[in-house]
Specification:
The structure is a single chain. The chain has one domain: Transcription Regulator spoIIAA (2-Layer Sandwich). The protein is about 30% helix and about 30% strand. The protein contains 5 helices and 10 strands, in the order αββαβαβαβαβββββ. Strands 1-2-3-4 form a 4-stranded mixed β-sheet. Helix 2 links the parallel strand 2 and strand 3. The chain is globular and about 45 Å long.
């Protein structure tokens, strides 16, 4: 299945620096996975924002960004993520990031964006979180640091510091892991 089968005219625009592969989530309506590959910088950020807006405007209000193959983001890219999140939340949606490249996570932390940009430990966790209407959940004993990927034991929500990379992690009542004090 190609992108245009999922979202009409999605591939009408292209960018030499960033590729986006779409995937639907069968068990949940209005959820779309966007697998990104390349760099998000001054040149590719407008393409990225326009592509994500196409998804939101088409009714995909839950967006999961897979960032393992994105090795660079500029400050403009971080602003683009915030704008995409605002577009989704204004319509009752949400975004999550999975498999965030270590260098990208460092940029998020250096720009103090950790309270806005949340990361899930796995695709399954992101999907589960978006499907859940519960305000609280029972924590598993292990979470993964979004910066260094070290497994950590957590029994409750709160703020914690990763002993490996010293990143400050915030775990909310729903179990979502974010950098800082989200």
């Amino acid at each position: 299945m190609n992108n245009n089968d999922i979202l009409a005219c999605f591939d009408d625009d292209a960018c030499d620096f960033l590729a986006i592969q779409l995937q639907t989530v069968q068990e949940m309506d209005s959820c779309l996975i966007l697998k990104l590959k390349g760099q998000i910088d001054t040149y590719s950020a407008p393409f990225f924002q326009k592509s994500a807006r196409k998804a939101v405007d088409a009714g995909f209000l839950r967006l999961i960004f897979v960032l393992k193959d994105v090795d660079y983001v500029s400050s403009k890219a971080v602003g683009t993520f915030v704008q995409i999140q605002k577009a989704a939340t204004d319509k009752g949606g949400q975004i999550a990031m999975v498999d965030v490249h270590r260098r990208v996570m460092e940029v998020f932390r250096n720009l103090s964006m950790e309270k806005f940009l949340c990361c899930a430990d796995s695709m399954e966790e992101a999907i589960s979180q978006m499907k859940s209407d519960k305000k609280t959940r029972t924590f598993s004993e292990a979470i993964q640091c979004p910066t260094c990927k070290r497994k950590l034991k957590v029994a409750k929500s709160g703020r914690f510091r990763c002993p490996e990379c010293t990143a400050v992690l915030s775990i909310d009542e729903t179990g979502m892991v974010c950098l800082g004090n989200a």
